[in-house]
Amino acid sequence: MLKRFGKPKTEAESAGLPAAASPAAASPVPSAPAPAPVGRGVPPTFRRDSLEWNSAPQAVDPWARNAEIKMKLHQQLLDMMNLSALEALSPEEARREVGQMLTELLSHESTPLTAVQRSQVSEEVLNEILGLGPIEPLVKDPSISDILVNTHSTVFIERNGKLELTPIRFKDDRHLLRIIDKIVSSVGRRVDESQPMVDARLQDGSRVNAIVPPLAVDGPLLSIRKFATVKPDVETLIELGSITREIAQFLEAIVRGRFNILISGGTGSGKTTLLNAISRFIGEDERILTIEDAAELQLQQPHVVRLETRPPNIEGVGEVTQRHLVKNSLRMRPDRIVLGEVRGGEAFDMLQAMNTGHEGSLTTIHANSCRDALMRLEQMVAMAGLDLPMRGVRSQIASAMDVIIQLERLSDGKRRVVSVHELTGMEGDVITSQEIFVFKRITVDQHRNVIGEFHSTGIRPRFVSTLETKGIHLNPDIFRTERSLT
User: Fold this and answer.
1) Hey, which bits of 193-260 come out as E strands?
2) Which pTM was predicted?
3) Whole-angstrom distance, CA of residue 223 vs CA of residue 144
4) CB-based burial label for 252 (10 Å; 0-12, 13-18, 19+)
5) Topology of the domain covering 131-227
6) Strands 403-409, 261-265: parallel, antiparallel or unpaired by DSSP?
7) Tell me: the pLDDT tens digits for 139-196?
8) For domain 234-485, which CATH number applies: 3.40.50.2300, 3.30.43.10, 3.40.50.1110, 3.40.50.300?
9) Which stretches in the chain have pLDDT values below 50?
10) Burial letters for 306-316: b for 16+ Cβ neighbours within 10 Å, e otherwise?
């Protein structure tokens, strides 16, 4: 039986002579390639069925990822399929129909493939036609929150708040561009040299951002912020250690008491998650109007009106901004306005709404601290193009906002509420506030997990008496001086 690599041994080799003594030594004998060393620069192996990484290198069968076979099957399927009829089918029906055609094509494939190899090739070709190619398994994995494609050769993911390198690769930049075009064309957008940046979202609500050359120097870039399928609630946040039960009771009281709340934090700190969670405390008899750039909020009340901004079309017209929607929302008789994130001139209209009867409104903002959040609000009001004195702007903010909640993603990847402030008014030209709760870091354990405690500062909010007049009572012990919260 012939071996796959090498030639039969010569008489000199059989006799145990060194290779130099063998006449055949002059012509090198091909040998099996050595396994790739495990170390710096070598990605870990990747188990496709469970999307788990293994530290030890594993042999990868060349036929399982043979690009020529997949390209050939892909082209044959395109020749066989009626694409217009395929679009009319549900995703399950389309996958079943394409799977049957693919099985038929594989039965005539001359290249010997095992059952496992056939299954892998079939899944990858199906992902190319009906899904997002190599990253389709990542999109389906609920434990992954972000997918970051840095050119065709590098794919990172975020899982449990930490970035990980995956061994998944695209064939080349053209392959990646084709997947990007598939995403953006499904929502009526395009990306090319004339429009090298695009924001879009998948059918499940996941946010997508793509940048292509010439803006992306090394090749196309793709970022996907996945849409949470599990509806968050406060109990989940307590279990994860993001807040304590006492802080959760405080948040419930201020939401039910119809105080205006600003949730502040950096990118990926959990602002939308917390907003989703505390929005469950809004009464079911209220009309809630949500305004977002990309629809992410999952409010559970029966009377929710959802609005979403619209980017300009190919001709550069037709854009509808958050400011347009905020202005229009005031004519829609909302009890509460929930603004997914304040980013620009809509900050002025939002403050106007909060000061004119739309109490209990909620929004988020990108900022590194509660004080920074107030400064950013001032800047955004200035972006509205109105020539307002700064003292007047600050007076509007102090009058409209009641509570600022600061979130942070710590070094261990966990998201926590690190500070809760009450706005108390103005002193001269300065907005005054007082801290109610704070998260104090103590140390880091051997696994680099942050160890800390939630504390009450001992300050009793001024609006507690207002809550009591509305029939909402808080345990006074949660405001006890320097009390560690559990």
Assistant:
1) 197-201, 207-211, 221-225
2) 0.72
3) 13
4) middle
5) Beta-Lactamase (3.30.450)
6) parallel
7) 888 888 899 999 988 999 998 778 889 988 888 888 889 888 888 887 777 788 888 8
8) 3.40.50.300
9) 1-65
10) ebbbebeeeee
